[in-house]
Amino acid sequence: MKATIVLIEDNERNRYLTTFLLEKYDYKVYQAVDGQSGIEMVRQLQPDLILLDIQLPGMDGYAVARELTRNQGPRNIPIVAVTSYAMPGDRERVLDSGCIGYIEKPINPATFVQEIEQYLSAHGDQECAQEH
Ligand code: MN
Q1: Which terminus of the chain has fewer CB atoms gathered within 10 Å of its CB, N or C?
Q2: Which residues pair with 53 in a beta bridge?
Q3: Whether the Cβ atoms of residue 67 and residue 42 lie closer than 8 Å to each other
Q4: Residue 10 Cα, ligand 1 centroid: separation in angstroms?
Q5: Which of 49, 28, 56 is nearest to 118 (CA)?
Q6: How far is CA 89 from each of CA 24, 31, 62, 119, rounded to the nearest angstrom?
Q7: pLDDT attached to residue 130
Q8: 70 alpha carbon – ligand 1 mean position (Å)
Q9: CA distance readout (Å), 123 to 13, 101, 119
């Protein structure tokens, strides 16, 4: 079975496109529309990867990433930010908050799934194989 991904994104069109692309490649995608419900979902599902929008209502993506990495469960679940921020320093801020990387919006449908696969294979594949 392909990897399980929790997508935390408040924009409906982005949720739709991201999920559509990943499901086409047999990933199992669970959607959360804000940070708090995303954190709950991650704790319950222990997914293989978290895709995290930075601009979220209420708790922003930086806070979500900090919370998730501060209270990690038994697994070190990789968090990848998906954001339209492209100011100098934003990348560092994303990485400082606990994300392993950064995909720029608007996402490129031609390369998006490949990018996700690279993050997945670089992080904890052996561990996933044991657990699933
Ligand atoms: Mn957003």
Answers
A1: N
A2: 82
A3: no
A4: 5
A5: 49
A6: 34, 28, 13, 21
A7: 45
A8: 22
A9: 28, 11, 6
CA neighbor of 79 nearest in space, from 106, 119, 21: 119
User: Two tokens at 116?
Assistant: 């996700």
Count of positions (residues) in the chain = 132
The H or E element containing residue 48 is none
Whole-number Å distance, alpha carbon 129 to ligand 1 midpoint, is: 32
Instruction: Report the separation in Å between the CA atom of 96 and the middle of ligand 1, taken as the mean of its atom positions.
Output: 19
66, 93 Cβ separation under 8 angstroms: no
Q: How far does the centroid of ligand 1 lie from the alpha carbon of residue 122, in Å?
A: 26
Tens-digit pLDDT profile for residues 73-121: 667 899 999 988 667 788 899 999 999 999 999 999 999 999 999 999 9
CA of 43 to the centre of ligand 1 (A): 21
Q: How far is the CA of 126 from the centre of ligand 1 (A)?
A: 32
**24 touches 114 (CB < 8 A):** no
What is the overall mean pLDDT for the chain?
A: 90
